[in-house]
Design goal:
single chain; Lyase 2-enoyl-coa Hydratase, Chain  A, domain 2; 6-stranded mixed beta sheet; 4-stranded mixed beta sheet; 44% helix
Length: 275
C-alpha cells in the first residue's frame, strides 16, 4: 500500500498557500507528519510570495484527530524527547510564520489537531465538526501548546473546563466560547477559509506580518515593551512601500492594490515592490 504524503502544500497565484494534513482518514499526527510540517514551514517562511496560509485536513472526516496512538510504544519511555519536543517545535513553526494563518477545521479536531488549530490566527469550522482536548481521559494532558494557547484564546475559565473534562464540543459551542471565529455550512469550510484568505492576500503584506508577530508577542511583554515594539513597527510601515499606494488610492478614491512583499523596501526595483 502506498504511504500517505502526510503533508501537502500548494501555492495559488494570488499568494494564498494551502497546507494540507494528508494522512487519511483521520490525518493523525505522526513523527513523519511533524518532520514534514517543519520542512514545509521553513519553505513557506522563506517565500515572499506567500501572503496568507490556510491549513486544513484531507477529506471530510477530520482536520486532525490527534496523535497516532500506534506510535506510543516506540516513544513511551522518553516521550518528551521523541515526540512532544518535536511536536512543540512543529506547532511553534506554524505560530511563527510571518504571514496570517487560517485553520479550516473541516472535520474532527482533537488533541494534537486542536493544538495545531490553536497555533493558527483564525479558525473557521464546519458546522458539523467537533473539537476538543480529550488527553486527560488517557491519563495525560495536552503537552504541545494546548494548555497555554487555549487559555490565551478563550480565557482561563473556559480553558480549565475543556481541559479538565476532556469534553469534545460541537461547532456552535466552540463559536460561543470564542474558540472558533466562524462557522461554515457543511462541506464549505475550506472554501470559506480560502475566500477570507483571498481577501487578506490583498492587504499589505508587511502590515499583516507585523500585526501577527505583534499580537503573538504581546502575551510575553509588559505594556512599555509592547509600546516600544509598536513604535518600531510603525516606523517600518510608515517608511515602507505600501503607504505610498495606500495614500495614493485614498485620494484617488480607488481600492488600493498592495503588491509589495513583506520585506520590500521603498524604492526597491524588486518584483512586488513600489518604485
Amino acid at each position: 500500500m502506498t504511504a500517505p504524503p502526510y503533508v501537502r502544500y500548494e501555492l495559488r497565484e494570488s499568494g494564498v498557500g494551502i497546507l494540507t494534513l494528508d494522512n487519511p482518514p483521520l490525518n493523525l499526527t505522526t513523527l513523519t507528519t511533524l518532520d514534514r510540517l517543519m520542512t514545509a514551514c521553513r519553505q513557506i517562511a522563506g517565500d515572499e510570495s506567500v501572503r496568507v496560509l490556510v491549513v486544513t485536513g484531507a477529506g471530510d472526516k477530520a482536520f486532525c484527530a490527534g496523535s497516532d496512538i500506534g506510535e506510543f510504544d516506540s516513544v513511551r519511555e522518553d516521550v518528551v524527547t521523541h515526540k512532544l519536543a518535536r511536536e512543540n517545535e512543529a506547532f511553534l513553526a506554524i505560530e511563527e510564520l510571518p504571514m496570517p494563518v487560517i485553520a479550516a477545521l473541516n472535520g474532527a479536531t482533537l488533541g494534537g489537531g486542536g493544538e495545531i488549530a490553536l497555533a493558527c490566527d483564525i479558525r473557521i469550522m464546519d458546522e458539523t465538526a467537533r473539537i476538543g482536548f480529550p488527553e486527560v481521559k488517557l491519563g495525560v494532558f495536552p503537552g504541545s501548546g494546548g494548555v497555554f494557547r487555549l487559555a490565551r484564546i478563550i480565557g482561563p475559565a473556559s480553558a480549565y473546563e475543556l481541559l479538565y473534562t476532556g469534553d469534545v464540543i460541537d461547532g456552535p459551542a466552540a463559536y460561543r466560547i470564542g474558540l472558533v471565529n466562524r462557522l461554515a455550512a457543511k462541506g464549505r469550510c475550506l472554501s470559506a477559509a480560502l475566500a477570507l484568505a483571498e481577501t487578506l492576500a490583498k492587504r499589505p503584506a508587511l502590515s499583516l506580518s507585523l500585526i501577527r508577530a505583534g499580537v503573538r508577542d504581546s502575551f510575553s511583554q509588559t505594556t512599555r515593551e509592547a509600546i516600544k515594539r509598536t513604535l518600531a513597527d510603525s516606523h517600518r510601515v510608515f517608511t515602507g512601500p505600501d503607504i505610498d499606494e495606500g495614500v495614493s488610492a485614498f485620494f484617488a478614491k480607488r481600492p488600493a492594490v498592495f503588491t509589495a512583499g513583506r520585506s520590500a523596501k521603498r524604492g526597491s526595483n524588486k518584483k512586488g515592490s513600489v518604485e
